[in-house]
Every structure is written in structure tokens, then in C-alpha cells.
Amino acid sequence: MVFVVTGPSGSGKSTILRHVVKDMRRMAFSVSHTTRPRRPSERDGREYHFVSEAEFRRLAGRDAFVEWAVVHGHLYGTSRAEIRSKGRTGDVLLDIDVQGARQIRKRLPGATTVFILPPSFTALRRRLLDRGEDEAAVVRTRLGNAKAEIREAESFDYLIVNDRLDRAIIELEAVVLSVRCRAENRKRAIRAALSGRMA
Questions:
Q1: Is the CATH number 3.40.50.300 carried by domain 2-181?
Q2: Domain regions of the chain by residue span
Q3: Sign of the CA dihedral running 172, 174, 178, 180
Q4: Across the chain, what does the average pLDDT equal?
Q5: Where do runs of H (alpha helix) occur along the chain?
Q6: What is the pLDDT of residues 56-75, one digit of tens each?
């Protein structure tokens, strides 16, 4: 199963997802491609696959992405190969923006979408400034885009307010468990319960 997690920059998505991948069995994180510069704390292949714009556009031209978009002035995309590879061993978590989530809904209609909300716009601004890894102009752009992103929150399957990290992690894990327990996702368990001879 595919879980699409979206929220404005600074909402805490990445931190929440790191904990969920670590805590839950059969859960993998899909590493997106991006043309944005790597931050000092990031490593290629862990947070993102950092590529040139020419390489990104070459991949997009080959239809290598299940979704891609221009976000905050840079290209971001989720490769089909990444989802296939990570999905072989269990469920896949995608950390993408609202544009990407729209595309995923069309191309993977069974995907579950989750929006991470900050407790307030003031808290969002503070988180972006406290991170200290982006220039002031980048922070302004991200804050400007945040309001448009938040306006789309109601179109998602689930909303999580990240006012307390521990609670936000538990809530996302609860969403995953709930979806895994849907009857349509437990067909194998039904077959197993019906298999074998009657006493």
C-alpha cells in the first residue's frame, strides 16, 4: 500500500516519517528526486536523490516519475522504480507536496493521503527560521506557499496536527494500522482462515 504524506515545509513531515519508518514493520520510505541544493545535514540517497535539472528532465521525458512538480522553484519527483522497489517488502511512505498528491490520486487511486498541519502559522514560521538551513528569501517563499497548501488540507483522507511530535507519530501510525486492517486489504487473511479441511 502507498501512503502519501503532505504538509507545508516546516510542518515536521520528515521527522514524523523517520520515526514511523523506524517504528513500524514492513514500512519503507520512498526517496524522491530533486534539483534543489543539498542542505548540510542531508545525504544523497537518504533524504533525496539530488540531481541536476538536465538529469531530472531526462528522467521526466522517459516517464520515469509517477508524479513530479515544481515546488519552491525546484523540481521534485517520485520515481516509479523507487515505489516498485520499496513496495516489494511492504508499504511505502511518500513525502510529497500537494501537487504531487493530486497526481498520485489520479495514478494510484488506492493510495491513502495524509496532511500534516502545523499548530499555527506562527509556529510554522518559527520552525522554518529555527531550522537555520535556508536563506531568508527561501523561508519567505516557503511561507508564502504554505497558505495555499494548507487550503487543500480538507481534500486529504486524514489530517494530523503536529503540535506534539510524539502524538503526531502515534496518529500517523494509527492511520497506517487502520488502513492495513480494512477488509479489502485483508483478503489474504480471509483466504487463510477459509483454507484447510473442516473438522
A1: yes
A2: 2-181
A3: positive
A4: 91
A5: 13-23, 53-61, 80-87, 98-107, 121-131, 136-150, 165-180, 187-194
A6: 999 999 999 999 999 888 99
